[in-house]
Specification:
Length: 78
Amino acid sequence: MDLLPRYPTRREVTRANAWRLGQLPGQARIYDARDQRGADHRKESISHQQMLDILDKLVAPKRLELKVGAQVMLTKVL
């Protein structure tokens, strides 16, 4: 596993990730997020707009393109 450089903007990260993915052999697979509304800290359902606002602040993309051998970073504690 290679150490990956850090970049100051998401645009630079996206560009670097696309370049590295392009260097890998094989066909890419696309994974689309399937988001659904949840509840807030009071267990009250959040609105669709609240969900979209929260998702816009996340690091994880809505569409993920991967190839076998691609390095990935887990962004959620399991």
